[in-house]
Amino acid sequence: xxxVNTESVPGYEVMEVKGLVQGNTIRAKHLGRDIAANLKSLVxxxxxxxxxxxxxxxxxxxxxxxxxxxxxxANAVINVRFTTSAITQGAAELYAYGTAVYVQRHxxxxxxxxxxxxxxxxxxxxxxxxxxxx
Amino acid sequence: xEDAPGIMAFLVTAAILLFAFGPPLVGLLVGRYIEKAHLxxxxxxxxxxxxxxVTDTDVPASKLGLTPGGAVxxxxxxxxxxxxxxxxxxxxxxxxxxxxxxxxxxxxxxxxEALCRMLKQAHSRKAQAVVNVRMEVSSITFWDARRxPMVEIIAYGTAVLPVSDxxxxxxxxx
Lengths: 134, 174
Prior knowledge:
The structure holds two protein chains of two kinds. Chain A is α+β, with helices and mostly antiparallel strands. Chain A has one domain: Translation Initiation Factor IF3 (2-Layer Sandwich), CATH 3.30.110. Chain A has two helices and five strands; from the N terminus they run ββαβαββ. Chain A has helices at residues 31-40, 48-71; strands spanning 2-3, 12-28, 45-46, 76-88, 91-105. In chain A, a hairpin with a 2-residue loop joins strand 4 and strand 5. Chain B has helices at 4-49, 84-96, 101-124; strands at 70-81, 129-139, 151-161. In chain B, helix 1 crosses helix 2 and helix 1 (4-49) packs across helix 3 (101-124). The radius of gyration of chain B is 24 Å and the shape is elongated. At the A-B interface, strand 1, helix 1, strand 3, helix 2 and strand 4 of A face helix 1, strand 1, helix 3, strand 2 and strand 3 of B. Strand 3 (45-46) of chain A pairs antiparallel with strand 1 (70-81) of chain B.
């Protein structure tokens, strides 16, 4: 699965738009890490335990987003965005969303301007965002 | 035995002073040292990664003079907190308002670190460029005067891969 935050995939052409896909996870820190981080914040700088925790959580939200894209029959997700927000004291939500698409590689026979899907971003090609998609 | 109250008073005063000014002092001295070491390592890392062009717009790869072989998502993140001395200064600053200069340095350090981590990922995939880079800062703690304000800084973008290293889209997984 190709994941990018650009509107197209370099070297590929978007053939079909499958719709919006998303993944989220809410993570709480645990007490041991909290104590270590509070000690570390005496001298400031990076709190490595939290960096790891959030990196891991972000990977999980990306994976959930990709699983949804796969269900829609997509082979790439474009225009991916992240948001992080504090939910309660000690827990944060990591959210990733993007547009699932089907892409095809440029080849010598079909250079970029001759690809059949050159103008695919039309409203009628975007499936409705119904509630069945979680 | 007459000077027992004197000793007690001294100990109590010392304990209060240590409690009030100990953490900021440790933060000032150790934090400053750690910061200098970090800035040095950032300078080195940035010099090594300068070969990869980075843009914050969705430039077509052809405009960068590249023949793209594919693309891969790259992310760098870091969670940072101010030291106890800066925390104390910022409480004073809240009384009179104005610029919190000591936080500028901290946040720019965090941003550089996040960007470096993202670029290192791009470098390990032999990327030709990283386009559409986005930076985001988010507070991961609710505002609470007793706790240090922690912020997460993330930098993410699309790394343009060379033709030889193209990812095959039909293969699932990152």
